[in-house]
Write a structure and sequence with these properties.
6% strand; 4 strands; two-stranded antiparallel ribbon; mainly alpha
C-alpha cells in the first residue's frame, strides 16, 4: 500500500513539474533526436541567398569538450553570436583551428558543410542522419534530447573528449578540481530536491564557462527560476539546447522529498 502511495506521489510530482514548466509559456518542441542540438550558422560575408551551414553538436560532442570550443576557440554560446567569417577560418580561428587537414578535414572540403543548393542540403541532412544513427548504436541510451547519455559514455570511457588543442589551449592546472555536490531546494513545494554536481560539469565545461558571467562565485547567491531556465538563461544556456533536455526532470530533481506528506 505504501509502495503504491509513493508511486502515486512520484507521478504527481513529475506531472506537477511538467505543469509548472508549461506555465512558463515555453512549450517543448518535438525535436527529432538526430536534430537535437543542431545550430544554423549563417554566413555574414555572403549575400542572403547563401544557404546556412548546419552545425551538428552531436558530431563534435564525443570528440571535444564544450570548454575547448566555447572558451579556447571563443565560440559564442548564442546562435550566430560569433560571426564566423571565411577569412577567420583561413587564419586558423574558429572552425579553422581544427579543420586544417590534420586535426579534422581541411577547409578546402567546403561542400562537406556548405550546401551548394537545396537538393544538396537535403543530401547532407540525410547523410548526417545515417551517421547519427550509427553513432547512437555505440553509446548509452537516454530518454530525451538526442537520446544519448553523453555523461555515462564519458564515465565509462567509451568517449574521451579532447580538452587541449596545440597552439590554442593553455595547460589546465590539475589543482583546479571541484567534486562538490550541492543540494538545491525547488521553489515549488513537493518536488524532489535538486542535486547539482560540480564534478560532472567540470569534465565538460571547466570553471570559466559558468563563472562569473552566468553564475555568482558564491554558492547560492544566484537567484534562479525555472521560467528563466526555459527562456535560455542560467542552466538553460545549455540544457534544453545542447545538454540533456529540460523535460528530463529527474536528472536534476534527483533527491527524494523529505516529509512529502507534510
Amino acid at each position: 500500500m505504501k509502495r503504491a502511495a509513493a508511486k502515486t506521489f512520484q507521478t504527481g510530482v513529475v506531472f506537477g513539474l511538467f505543469i509548472s514548466l508549461c506555465g512558463t509559456g515555453i512549450a517543448f518542441a518535438a525535436v527529432k533526436s538526430f536534430e537535437y542540438g543542431n545550430v544554423l550558422m549563417s554566413q555574414p560575408e555572403k549575400d542572403n541567398t547563401a544557404l546556412p551551414v548546419t552545425f551538428r553538436h552531436w558530431s563534435h560532442r564525443g570528440k571535444y569538450t564544450c570548454r575547448l570550443c566555447h572558451v579556447d576557440l571563443e565560440f559564442s554560446q548564442l546562435a550566430n553570436g560569433t560571426g564566423v567569417m571565411e577569412e577567420d577560418n583561413r587564419n586558423g580561428m574558429y572552425c579553422g583551428a581544427c579543420h586544417n587537414g590534420k586535426e579534422a578535414f581541411a577547409l578546402e572540403a567546403c561542400t562537406r558543410c556548405h550546401p551548394k543548393d537545396k537538393q544538396h542540403e537535403q543530401e547532407l541532412a540525410q547523410q548526417a542522419k545515417r551517421e547519427f544513427q550509427e553513432l547512437k548504436k555505440t553509446l548509452p541510451p537516454a530518454t530525451y534530447g538526442n537520446k544519448i547519455d553523453w555523461m555515462k559514455a564519458e564515465e565509462d570511457g567509451i568517449i574521451k573528449p579532447k580538452d587541449f588543442l596545440q597552439g590554442v589551449s593553455l595547460r589546465k592546472s590539475e589543482k583546479m578540481v571541484n567534486s562538490r555536490e550541492e543540494p538545491r531546494t525547488p521553489a515549488l513545494p513537493g518536488l524532489p530536491n535538486i542535486i547539482f554536481s560540480h564534478a560532472k560539469h567540470v569534465v565538460w565545461n571547466g570553471c570559466g564557462m559558468c563563472h562569473p558571467d552566468t553564475f555568482a562565485l558564491e554558492s547560492g547567491k544566484t537567484p534562479i527560476t525555472m521560467k528563466e531556465i526555459t527562456e535560455g538563461k542560467f542552466c538553460g544556456r545549455c540544457h534544453g539546447n545542447i545538454a540533456f533536455a529540460l523535460n528530463d526532470c529527474t536528472r536534476c530533481h534527483s533527491k527524494p522529498v523529505l516529509n512529502p506528506g507534510s
